[in-house]
Amino acid sequence: MAAIELNRIVKSFGPAPCLRDVSLGVASGEFLTILGPSGCGKSTLLRILAGLECQDGGTVSIGDRIVDNVPPKRRDVAMVFQSYALYPHMTVARNMALPLTMRRLSPWQRLPLIGRFLPRTSVIRRQISDEVAATAAALGIDHLVDRKPGQLSGGQRQRVALGRAMVRRPAAFLMDEPLSNLDAKLRVGMRAEIKQLHQELGITFVYVTHDQAEAMTLSDRVAVMAEGELLQVGSPQQIYMSPADRRVAEFIGTPKINMLVGVTGENGRIVVVGTSLRLSAPCAAGDVLSVGIRAEAIGISADTADSAFSGCLRMIEHMGSDLFLHLEVAGVSPLIVARAPAAALSRLAIGQTLHLSVDAGATLLFDGSGRRIAATDGAKLARLTMERQTA
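Now predict its structure.
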Protein backbone atom coordinates (compact mmCIF):
# COMPACT_ATOMS: atom_id res chain seq x y z
CA MET A 1 0.00 0.00 0.00
CA ALA A 2 1.12 3.56 -0.62
CA ALA A 3 -0.16 7.06 0.01
CA ILE A 4 -0.34 9.37 -3.02
CA GLU A 5 0.17 13.12 -3.10
CA LEU A 6 -0.51 15.37 -6.09
CA ASN A 7 0.78 18.85 -5.35
CA ARG A 8 -0.23 21.88 -7.48
CA ILE A 9 -0.44 19.96 -10.75
CA VAL A 10 -0.68 22.15 -13.86
CA LYS A 11 -1.12 20.87 -17.42
CA SER A 12 -1.95 22.53 -20.73
CA PHE A 13 -2.34 21.23 -24.26
CA GLY A 14 -1.16 24.13 -26.38
CA PRO A 15 -2.90 27.32 -25.27
CA ALA A 16 -5.76 25.41 -23.62
CA PRO A 17 -5.31 24.76 -19.87
CA CYS A 18 -6.33 21.26 -18.83
CA LEU A 19 -5.45 21.16 -15.13
CA ARG A 20 -5.37 24.30 -12.98
CA ASP A 21 -3.27 24.01 -9.82
CA VAL A 22 -4.75 20.68 -8.64
CA SER A 23 -3.64 19.39 -5.23
CA LEU A 24 -5.00 16.09 -3.96
CA GLY A 25 -3.93 13.56 -1.34
CA VAL A 26 -4.92 9.88 -1.19
CA ALA A 27 -4.38 7.98 2.06
CA SER A 28 -2.77 4.56 2.05
CA GLY A 29 -5.43 1.90 1.45
CA GLU A 30 -8.12 4.46 0.56
CA PHE A 31 -10.60 4.18 -2.31
CA LEU A 32 -10.76 7.65 -3.87
CA THR A 33 -12.85 8.43 -6.95
CA ILE A 34 -12.16 11.39 -9.22
CA LEU A 35 -15.58 12.40 -10.56
CA GLY A 36 -16.49 14.93 -13.21
CA PRO A 37 -17.99 15.49 -16.66
CA SER A 38 -16.14 14.60 -19.86
CA GLY A 39 -13.28 16.97 -20.60
CA CYS A 40 -12.77 18.14 -17.00
CA GLY A 41 -9.20 16.76 -16.83
CA LYS A 42 -9.76 13.75 -14.58
CA SER A 43 -8.22 11.15 -16.96
CA THR A 44 -5.26 13.46 -17.65
CA LEU A 45 -4.67 13.71 -13.90
CA LEU A 46 -4.70 9.90 -13.63
CA ARG A 47 -2.28 9.55 -16.56
CA ILE A 48 0.09 12.03 -14.91
CA LEU A 49 -0.06 9.93 -11.75
CA ALA A 50 0.73 6.80 -13.79
CA GLY A 51 3.60 8.52 -15.63
CA LEU A 52 1.94 8.33 -19.04
CA GLU A 53 1.76 12.15 -19.25
CA CYS A 54 4.18 14.79 -17.98
CA GLN A 55 2.78 17.71 -16.01
CA ASP A 56 3.84 21.28 -16.76
CA GLY A 57 4.16 22.09 -13.07
CA GLY A 58 3.75 20.53 -9.64
CA THR A 59 4.94 17.25 -8.13
CA VAL A 60 3.67 13.68 -7.82
CA SER A 61 4.58 11.56 -4.80
CA ILE A 62 3.86 7.84 -4.30
CA GLY A 63 4.73 6.58 -0.84
CA ASP A 64 7.62 8.63 0.46
CA ARG A 65 9.27 9.43 -2.89
CA ILE A 66 8.70 12.02 -5.61
CA VAL A 67 8.22 10.18 -8.92
CA ASP A 68 8.19 13.06 -11.43
CA ASN A 69 11.17 11.63 -13.33
CA VAL A 70 10.40 7.96 -12.67
CA PRO A 71 9.17 5.96 -15.71
CA PRO A 72 5.75 4.26 -15.47
CA LYS A 73 7.14 0.74 -15.02
CA ARG A 74 9.07 1.85 -11.90
CA ARG A 75 6.18 3.64 -10.15
CA ASP A 76 4.71 0.38 -8.79
CA VAL A 77 1.17 1.20 -9.94
CA ALA A 78 -1.18 -0.87 -12.08
CA MET A 79 -3.62 0.78 -14.47
CA VAL A 80 -6.90 -0.63 -15.74
CA PHE A 81 -8.04 1.09 -18.94
CA GLN A 82 -11.51 1.80 -20.30
CA SER A 83 -10.74 -0.23 -23.45
CA TYR A 84 -9.36 -3.27 -21.50
CA ALA A 85 -6.10 -3.13 -23.61
CA LEU A 86 -5.82 -6.92 -23.89
CA TYR A 87 -3.60 -8.56 -26.51
CA PRO A 88 -5.99 -10.34 -28.91
CA HIS A 89 -3.47 -13.04 -29.97
CA MET A 90 -2.76 -14.12 -26.38
CA THR A 91 -4.85 -16.34 -24.14
CA VAL A 92 -6.30 -15.05 -20.88
CA ALA A 93 -3.50 -16.77 -18.96
CA ARG A 94 -0.78 -15.19 -21.10
CA ASN A 95 -2.41 -11.73 -20.89
CA MET A 96 -2.49 -11.96 -17.10
CA ALA A 97 1.03 -13.37 -16.88
CA LEU A 98 2.60 -10.72 -19.12
CA PRO A 99 3.52 -8.15 -16.41
CA LEU A 100 5.18 -10.85 -14.31
CA THR A 101 6.95 -12.33 -17.34
CA MET A 102 8.38 -8.95 -18.29
CA ARG A 103 9.45 -8.22 -14.72
CA ARG A 104 10.94 -11.55 -13.66
CA LEU A 105 12.40 -13.05 -16.83
CA SER A 106 15.38 -11.66 -18.72
CA PRO A 107 15.13 -11.06 -22.48
CA TRP A 108 17.03 -14.33 -23.08
CA GLN A 109 14.75 -16.27 -20.74
CA ARG A 110 11.71 -14.98 -22.64
CA LEU A 111 12.87 -16.47 -25.94
CA PRO A 112 10.50 -19.32 -26.94
CA LEU A 113 13.13 -21.99 -27.68
CA ILE A 114 16.43 -21.04 -26.05
CA GLY A 115 14.82 -19.53 -22.95
CA ARG A 116 13.41 -22.77 -21.59
CA PHE A 117 16.92 -24.29 -21.27
CA LEU A 118 18.39 -21.36 -19.31
CA PRO A 119 18.82 -21.71 -15.51
CA ARG A 120 15.73 -21.10 -13.33
CA THR A 121 13.46 -20.30 -16.31
CA SER A 122 11.16 -23.25 -15.66
CA VAL A 123 10.97 -22.48 -11.92
CA ILE A 124 10.04 -18.83 -12.52
CA ARG A 125 7.46 -19.73 -15.17
CA ARG A 126 5.89 -22.24 -12.79
CA GLN A 127 5.65 -19.59 -10.06
CA ILE A 128 4.06 -17.15 -12.51
CA SER A 129 1.57 -19.81 -13.64
CA ASP A 130 0.57 -20.54 -10.02
CA GLU A 131 0.04 -16.83 -9.25
CA VAL A 132 -2.04 -16.33 -12.41
CA ALA A 133 -4.18 -19.37 -11.54
CA ALA A 134 -4.79 -18.09 -8.00
CA THR A 135 -5.78 -14.62 -9.25
CA ALA A 136 -8.04 -16.06 -11.96
CA ALA A 137 -9.78 -18.23 -9.36
CA ALA A 138 -10.31 -15.20 -7.10
CA LEU A 139 -12.01 -13.36 -9.99
CA GLY A 140 -14.05 -16.37 -11.08
CA ILE A 141 -12.41 -16.63 -14.52
CA ASP A 142 -10.26 -19.74 -13.92
CA HIS A 143 -12.36 -21.64 -16.49
CA LEU A 144 -11.51 -19.02 -19.14
CA VAL A 145 -7.71 -19.02 -18.95
CA ASP A 146 -7.26 -20.86 -22.28
CA ARG A 147 -9.58 -18.57 -24.25
CA LYS A 148 -8.58 -15.47 -26.19
CA PRO A 149 -10.18 -12.02 -25.64
CA GLY A 150 -12.30 -12.31 -28.79
CA GLN A 151 -14.08 -15.30 -27.21
CA LEU A 152 -15.06 -13.39 -24.05
CA SER A 153 -17.95 -11.11 -23.10
CA GLY A 154 -17.39 -7.51 -22.01
CA GLY A 155 -17.64 -8.39 -18.33
CA GLN A 156 -15.21 -11.29 -18.71
CA ARG A 157 -12.70 -9.06 -20.50
CA GLN A 158 -12.96 -6.52 -17.70
CA ARG A 159 -12.19 -9.24 -15.15
CA VAL A 160 -9.13 -10.26 -17.17
CA ALA A 161 -7.93 -6.64 -17.21
CA LEU A 162 -8.43 -6.47 -13.44
CA GLY A 163 -6.60 -9.78 -13.04
CA ARG A 164 -3.64 -8.55 -15.06
CA ALA A 165 -3.37 -5.60 -12.68
CA MET A 166 -3.97 -7.66 -9.52
CA VAL A 167 -1.34 -10.26 -10.27
CA ARG A 168 1.38 -7.61 -10.01
CA ARG A 169 0.47 -6.81 -6.38
CA PRO A 170 1.07 -3.07 -6.99
CA ALA A 171 1.23 -0.31 -4.40
CA ALA A 172 -1.84 1.33 -6.00
CA PHE A 173 -4.53 0.56 -8.57
CA LEU A 174 -5.41 3.27 -11.09
CA MET A 175 -8.71 2.75 -12.93
CA ASP A 176 -9.81 4.93 -15.85
CA GLU A 177 -13.59 4.48 -16.36
CA PRO A 178 -13.23 0.67 -16.39
CA LEU A 179 -16.99 -0.04 -16.47
CA SER A 180 -18.14 2.42 -19.12
CA ASN A 181 -18.21 -0.20 -21.89
CA LEU A 182 -20.47 -2.59 -19.95
CA ASP A 183 -24.26 -2.72 -19.97
CA ALA A 184 -26.22 -1.54 -16.94
CA LYS A 185 -26.65 -4.95 -15.30
CA LEU A 186 -22.97 -5.84 -15.66
CA ARG A 187 -21.92 -2.45 -14.30
CA VAL A 188 -23.88 -3.03 -11.10
CA GLY A 189 -22.32 -6.46 -10.66
CA MET A 190 -18.79 -5.25 -11.38
CA ARG A 191 -19.20 -2.34 -8.95
CA ALA A 192 -19.84 -4.82 -6.17
CA GLU A 193 -16.85 -6.94 -7.24
CA ILE A 194 -14.48 -3.95 -7.31
CA LYS A 195 -15.68 -2.83 -3.87
CA GLN A 196 -15.16 -6.33 -2.48
CA LEU A 197 -11.74 -6.53 -4.17
CA HIS A 198 -10.66 -3.31 -2.45
CA GLN A 199 -11.85 -4.57 0.93
CA GLU A 200 -9.95 -7.84 0.51
CA LEU A 201 -6.70 -6.36 -0.80
CA GLY A 202 -6.62 -3.14 1.23
CA ILE A 203 -4.61 -1.49 -1.56
CA THR A 204 -4.91 2.17 -2.54
CA PHE A 205 -7.43 2.66 -5.37
CA VAL A 206 -7.73 5.79 -7.52
CA TYR A 207 -10.80 5.47 -9.74
CA VAL A 208 -11.86 7.89 -12.49
CA THR A 209 -15.46 8.08 -13.69
CA HIS A 210 -18.19 10.45 -14.92
CA ASP A 211 -20.86 8.17 -13.38
CA GLN A 212 -21.98 9.52 -10.01
CA ALA A 213 -23.57 6.18 -9.06
CA GLU A 214 -20.14 4.50 -9.29
CA ALA A 215 -18.52 7.29 -7.29
CA MET A 216 -21.15 7.29 -4.53
CA THR A 217 -21.29 3.51 -4.08
CA LEU A 218 -17.59 2.65 -4.35
CA SER A 219 -15.67 5.44 -2.67
CA ASP A 220 -14.32 6.30 0.74
CA ARG A 221 -13.95 9.84 -0.62
CA VAL A 222 -14.92 11.58 -3.85
CA ALA A 223 -12.95 14.36 -5.58
CA VAL A 224 -15.23 16.39 -7.86
CA MET A 225 -13.63 18.20 -10.81
CA ALA A 226 -14.89 20.64 -13.43
CA GLU A 227 -13.03 22.56 -16.14
CA GLY A 228 -9.62 21.50 -14.82
CA GLU A 229 -10.34 22.59 -11.25
CA LEU A 230 -10.75 20.50 -8.12
CA LEU A 231 -14.03 21.73 -6.63
CA GLN A 232 -14.47 19.59 -3.52
CA VAL A 233 -13.12 16.47 -1.81
CA GLY A 234 -15.19 14.62 0.78
CA SER A 235 -17.17 11.53 1.64
CA PRO A 236 -20.10 10.65 -0.65
CA GLN A 237 -22.50 11.91 2.02
CA GLN A 238 -20.63 15.23 2.40
CA ILE A 239 -20.57 15.76 -1.35
CA TYR A 240 -24.32 15.17 -1.60
CA MET A 241 -25.54 16.89 1.56
CA SER A 242 -23.05 19.78 1.78
CA PRO A 243 -21.74 20.70 -1.68
CA ALA A 244 -19.25 23.56 -1.48
CA ASP A 245 -19.96 24.80 -4.99
CA ARG A 246 -23.06 25.16 -7.15
CA ARG A 247 -21.42 23.01 -9.87
CA VAL A 248 -21.01 20.17 -7.36
CA ALA A 249 -24.65 20.42 -6.27
CA GLU A 250 -25.88 20.35 -9.88
CA PHE A 251 -23.65 17.42 -10.89
CA ILE A 252 -24.42 15.18 -7.90
CA GLY A 253 -27.88 13.75 -7.40
CA THR A 254 -30.64 12.12 -9.43
CA PRO A 255 -32.84 13.85 -10.42
CA LYS A 256 -30.80 17.03 -10.83
CA ILE A 257 -31.24 19.53 -8.01
CA ASN A 258 -33.82 22.27 -8.54
CA MET A 259 -32.02 25.62 -8.73
CA LEU A 260 -34.29 28.63 -8.06
CA VAL A 261 -33.65 32.36 -7.77
CA GLY A 262 -33.89 33.79 -4.25
CA VAL A 263 -33.70 37.35 -2.97
CA THR A 264 -32.67 38.39 0.54
CA GLY A 265 -35.38 40.37 2.27
CA GLU A 266 -35.07 43.22 4.80
CA ASN A 267 -35.16 40.78 7.69
CA GLY A 268 -32.49 38.56 6.10
CA ARG A 269 -34.98 35.83 5.17
CA ILE A 270 -34.88 34.37 1.67
CA VAL A 271 -37.80 35.00 -0.70
CA VAL A 272 -38.24 32.30 -3.38
CA VAL A 273 -41.13 32.24 -5.88
CA GLY A 274 -42.91 34.86 -3.78
CA THR A 275 -42.56 32.74 -0.63
CA SER A 276 -40.40 33.68 2.36
CA LEU A 277 -38.47 30.62 3.54
CA ARG A 278 -37.59 30.26 7.20
CA LEU A 279 -33.93 30.86 6.44
CA SER A 280 -31.50 33.68 7.13
CA ALA A 281 -28.27 34.27 5.20
CA PRO A 282 -25.39 36.65 5.98
CA CYS A 283 -26.20 38.81 2.94
CA ALA A 284 -27.36 42.35 2.35
CA ALA A 285 -31.02 42.99 1.59
CA GLY A 286 -31.73 42.66 -2.10
CA ASP A 287 -28.86 40.25 -2.81
CA VAL A 288 -29.77 37.66 -5.46
CA LEU A 289 -28.91 34.07 -4.53
CA SER A 290 -29.29 30.63 -6.08
CA VAL A 291 -31.45 28.39 -3.92
CA GLY A 292 -30.93 24.65 -4.42
CA ILE A 293 -33.79 22.37 -3.41
CA ARG A 294 -33.44 18.62 -3.97
CA ALA A 295 -36.47 16.63 -5.08
CA GLU A 296 -36.82 14.86 -1.72
CA ALA A 297 -37.02 18.23 0.08
CA ILE A 298 -40.25 19.08 -1.77
CA GLY A 299 -43.43 17.49 -0.45
CA ILE A 300 -47.07 17.46 -1.54
CA SER A 301 -49.20 19.35 0.98
CA ALA A 302 -52.92 18.80 1.41
CA ASP A 303 -53.33 22.07 3.29
CA THR A 304 -52.73 25.21 1.23
CA ALA A 305 -51.78 27.08 4.40
CA ASP A 306 -48.74 24.82 4.83
CA SER A 307 -47.65 25.00 1.20
CA ALA A 308 -44.78 27.16 -0.07
CA PHE A 309 -46.07 27.38 -3.63
CA SER A 310 -48.25 25.56 -6.16
CA GLY A 311 -47.40 23.84 -9.42
CA CYS A 312 -49.16 22.18 -12.34
CA LEU A 313 -48.16 18.53 -12.85
CA ARG A 314 -46.81 18.10 -16.39
CA MET A 315 -45.04 14.72 -16.30
CA ILE A 316 -44.62 11.69 -14.05
CA GLU A 317 -41.54 9.45 -14.13
CA HIS A 318 -42.22 6.10 -12.50
CA MET A 319 -38.94 4.81 -10.99
CA GLY A 320 -40.36 1.77 -9.22
CA SER A 321 -40.29 2.67 -5.52
CA ASP A 322 -40.46 6.42 -6.25
CA LEU A 323 -42.13 8.90 -8.57
CA PHE A 324 -40.42 11.95 -10.03
CA LEU A 325 -43.05 14.66 -10.50
CA HIS A 326 -42.25 17.42 -13.02
CA LEU A 327 -44.18 20.54 -12.11
CA GLU A 328 -44.70 23.87 -13.85
CA VAL A 329 -44.47 26.73 -11.35
CA ALA A 330 -45.24 30.31 -12.38
CA GLY A 331 -42.09 32.36 -12.79
CA VAL A 332 -39.76 29.33 -12.64
CA SER A 333 -37.90 27.70 -15.52
CA PRO A 334 -37.27 24.83 -16.14
CA LEU A 335 -39.83 22.53 -14.50
CA ILE A 336 -39.39 21.75 -10.80
CA VAL A 337 -38.93 18.06 -9.92
CA ALA A 338 -40.33 16.60 -6.70
CA ARG A 339 -40.01 13.06 -5.36
CA ALA A 340 -43.08 11.17 -4.15
CA PRO A 341 -43.75 7.56 -3.07
CA ALA A 342 -45.09 5.21 -5.73
CA ALA A 343 -48.27 4.74 -3.67
CA ALA A 344 -49.25 8.35 -4.48
CA LEU A 345 -49.68 7.52 -8.19
CA SER A 346 -53.40 6.76 -7.87
CA ARG A 347 -54.03 10.27 -6.52
CA LEU A 348 -52.18 12.09 -9.29
CA ALA A 349 -53.19 13.20 -12.79
CA ILE A 350 -51.44 15.18 -15.49
CA GLY A 351 -52.63 18.81 -15.41
CA GLN A 352 -53.48 18.61 -11.71
CA THR A 353 -52.48 21.55 -9.47
CA LEU A 354 -50.42 20.44 -6.46
CA HIS A 355 -49.60 22.44 -3.34
CA LEU A 356 -45.93 22.01 -2.48
CA SER A 357 -44.11 22.35 0.83
CA VAL A 358 -40.36 22.87 1.16
CA ASP A 359 -38.06 21.56 3.88
CA ALA A 360 -36.19 24.81 4.53
CA GLY A 361 -33.49 22.99 6.50
CA ALA A 362 -32.56 20.96 3.42
CA THR A 363 -32.16 23.92 1.05
CA LEU A 364 -28.75 25.00 -0.23
CA LEU A 365 -27.77 28.63 -0.87
CA PHE A 366 -25.11 29.82 -3.33
CA ASP A 367 -23.85 33.31 -4.07
CA GLY A 368 -23.36 34.86 -7.51
CA SER A 369 -19.97 33.14 -7.97
CA GLY A 370 -21.42 29.73 -7.13
CA ARG A 371 -19.89 29.38 -3.67
CA ARG A 372 -21.95 27.86 -0.87
CA ILE A 373 -23.42 30.23 1.72
CA ALA A 374 -24.16 28.93 5.19
CA ALA A 375 -27.81 29.47 6.07
CA THR A 376 -29.49 29.47 9.47
CA ASP A 377 -33.01 28.23 10.12
CA GLY A 378 -35.16 31.19 11.11
CA ALA A 379 -36.44 29.54 14.31
CA LYS A 380 -32.89 28.71 15.39
CA LEU A 381 -31.75 32.25 14.63
CA ALA A 382 -34.54 33.71 16.76
CA ARG A 383 -33.72 31.35 19.63
CA LEU A 384 -30.02 32.21 19.49
CA THR A 385 -30.80 35.93 19.47
CA MET A 386 -33.08 35.57 22.50
CA GLU A 387 -30.42 33.56 24.35
CA ARG A 388 -27.82 36.28 23.68
CA GLN A 389 -30.21 38.99 24.96
CA THR A 390 -30.98 36.95 28.10
CA ALA A 391 -27.29 36.41 28.76
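Residues 378-391 have pLDDT under 50 and may be disordered.
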